[in-house]
Write a structure and sequence with these properties.
This protein has 20 helices and 22 strands. With 564 residues, it is α/β, with parallel strands linked by helices. The protein folds into three domains: 3-204, Alpha-D-Glucose-1,6-Bisphosphate, Chain A, domain 3 (3-Layer(aba) Sandwich); 222-449, 3-Layer(aba) Sandwich (Alpha-D-Glucose-1,6-Bisphosphate, Chain A, domain 3), CATH 3.40.120.10; 453-561, 2-Layer Sandwich (TATA-Binding Protein), CATH 3.30.310. Strands 16, 17, 18, 19, 20, 21 and 22 form a seven-stranded antiparallel beta sheet that branches. A six-stranded mixed beta sheet has the order 1-5-4-2-3-6, with helices on both faces. Strand 2 (88-92), helix 6 (98-111) and strand 3 form a beta-alpha-beta unit.
Length: 564
């Protein structure tokens, strides 16, 4: 069945009461739009589903969510009655249709004899990840598109280990999904009816408290060791972090914190920010304005589902400077190791995990404290997926992170967690302030001790069918005509992860090491229409490292952009 045939089938079968139906009729003569929406099914991978909110097989809508949930239910039932009895916990963010999709999913699970646990309102992704293991559910679903623009939504699936589903489980779920129709064969139950019958359980406030207690147990320093009057600004970017982040700051005793009022409450249109990604400095515009008013030393932001976390700090001139994910990682890794050593709680068999595209500077920091730094593929199903391996080899997990502003400080929360990362950064800022230092001072101390690092993570956004095919051609070209030098520096080693490398599973990633110590990596995004680049250089000064890194980046991007 081609795209046009699929389109006409949807016009005939789709519920006319659907908010997407009229817009589906409106594209009747738009062949390009029909092709984009129906040329394929929205891919179900290890990050679940993610797409634009439209009618179509390649989009996010109730039919796609319903089919995916029935497939998940069928997969769970295949695991036996014990798996089904454990139930599934469901969360959602502030986006359009997120709550409706979560209630739809809960009703489908209940109709299949699988108990569904839901939150009364939006909650952070890491809280879901934590409660999967705490409640002992077999799976978890989160309706979220993380940091994507307002016209996206997504469907993340977790398994009983608290991580996003592995490739093996994802493939098994997809096998159950792909045999289903979008319009029939899906069991459904009314959400309110499910609640009345006890088949859907609405979680109470004690589960919010349990999550916060777990986060706050990560504290390294407290009380008189901290200057709790440090002025702070936080923005949840109109997402799920607002209530738990504020409660965490209050619980820890911070007395001079401020929340950006225009971004404190849920807003599915992200009116004040547009692109709600804390990784982008533009997301801090209103935080900077408030920060100047209150004299804040630290600005903090989480994305709409509160798994990503980013900061801006004041430099030696008093100006706000955005830190990239690697730089925040340097501060966190250094603080955790230094703090635990000072507190006498640093184990002799400690280990951390970073992604293969994250700066290796933290490997040097870890090594200086006698801590092993392991690598994993991008994504926290891989980073936190290392935890069982660490336990088996008698290591104590201390921290995991990746450059895209994701940090996992607690082995019981097996996903990136913006709330716990925020607590540790705020604590670090208060600890160093007590010693007469700022985070800017600390970052420069790290550079002076371990090398002046430069980091850059540009990407090319290539949407639609044409974009996807071009990204494929780019990766093919890099393999057929390998890069042998960049900006005059020779490539001395190339790692192609397409078939796996050492104990790292297969992934479409290329990594290049140059004779000056710089390295870079290239990979297509698994969740967005992007090809991503990662460039790293160590120099005798920050300025030198930035200059060399920039030249390498320019050379490589020029080479890749030649591929049409």
């Amino acid at each position: 069945m081609n795209a046009k045939e699929r389109y006409h089938r949807w016009v005939k079968r789709m519920d006319e009461k659907s908010p997407f139906y009229k817009k589906l009729l409106a594209i009747y003569d738009d062949e390009n739009e029909i092709e984009e929406r129906f040329y394929q099914e929205l891919a179900f991978g290890t990050a679940g589903l993610r797409g634009k909110l439209k009618a179509g097989t390649n989009c996010m809508n109730a039919n796609v969510v319903g089919r995916a949930t029935q497939g998940l239910a069928d997969y769970i039932l295949k695991q036996g009655p014990e798996a089904a009895a454990k139930g599934v916990i469901i969360a959602h963010d502030c986006r359009h249709f997120s709550k409706a999709f979560s209630q739809l999913a809960a009703g489908i699970l209940a109709a299949n004899g699988i108990k569904a646990y839901v939150f009364p309102d939006l909650r952070p992704t890491p809280q879901l990840a934590y409660l999967i293991r705490s409640l002992g559910t077999v799976s978890g679903i989160n309706i979220t598109a993380s940091h994507n623009p307002k016209d996206y939504n997504g469907y993340k699936v977790y398994w009983e280990d608290g991580c996003q589903v592995s490739s093996t489980v994802a493939d098994g779920i997809y096998d159950c999904i792909k045999v289903l129709d979008y319009f029939s064969g899906i069991k459904k139950m009314n959400f309110d009816e499910g609640v009345r019958e006890g088949k859907i359980v609405v979680l109470g406030p004690e589960y919010d408290r349990a999550y916060l207690d777990k986060i706050e147990s990560l504290a390294i320093h407290s009380g008189d060791e901290l200057d709790l009057s440090i002025p702070l600004v936080y923005t949840p970017l109109n997402g799920a972090g607002s209530i738990p982040f504020r409660q965490m700051l209050e619980d820890r005793g911070f007395t001079n914190w401020h929340i950006v009022p225009e971004q404190a409450d849920p807003d599915p249109d992200f009116t004040t920010v547009g692109y709600p990604n804390p990784e982008s400095p533009a997301a801090f515009k209103m935080s900077e304005e408030l920060g100047r008013q209150v004299g804040a030393e630290l600005l903090m932001a989480t994305d709409p589902d509160s798994d990503r976390f980013a900061i801006e700090i004041r430099d030696d001139k008093g100006e706000y400077v955005p830190l990239n994910g690697n730089q925040t990682g340097y501060i966190l890794v250094n603080y955790i190791l230094e703090g635990r050593k000072t507190a006498g709680t640093l184990p002799s068999n400690g280990a951390m995990v970073k992604s293969i595209v994250t700066s290796t500077l933290t490997s040097d920091i870890a090594e200086s404290y006698g801590v092993k730094m392991y690598e994993a593929l991008t994504g926290f199903k891989n980073i936190c997926g290392r935890i069982p391996f660490l336990h088996k080899n008698n290591y104590v997990y201390l921290f995991g992170y990746e450059e895209s502003v994701g940090y996992a400080a607690c082995e019981d929360i097996r996903d990136k967690d913006g709330i716990s990362a925020g607590m540790l950064v705020a604590e670090a800022a208060a600890y160093y302030r007590k010693q007469g230092k700022t985070l800017w001072d600390v970052l420069n101390d790290i550079y002076e001790k371990y090398g002046y690092a430069a980091e850059d993570e540009p990407n090319l956004i290539l949407e639609g069918i044409a974009g996807s095919k071009r990204i494929g051609r780019m990766m093919d070209s890099l393999r057929e005509e390998p890069i042998t030098e960049a900006a005059g520096y020779k490539v001395v080693k190339t790692i192609d992860y397409i078939n796996g490398y050492e104990d790292i599973p297969a992934s479409n990633v290329l990594r290049y090491f140059l004779d000056n110590g710089s390295w870079f990596a290239i990979r297509p995004s698994g969740t967005e229409p992007k090809i991503k680049f990662y460039f790293y250089t160590i120099g005798n000064s920050r300025e030198e490292a930035l200059e060399v890194n920039s030249k390498i980046k320019e050379d490589v991007l020029t080479r890749v952009n030649r591929v049409e």
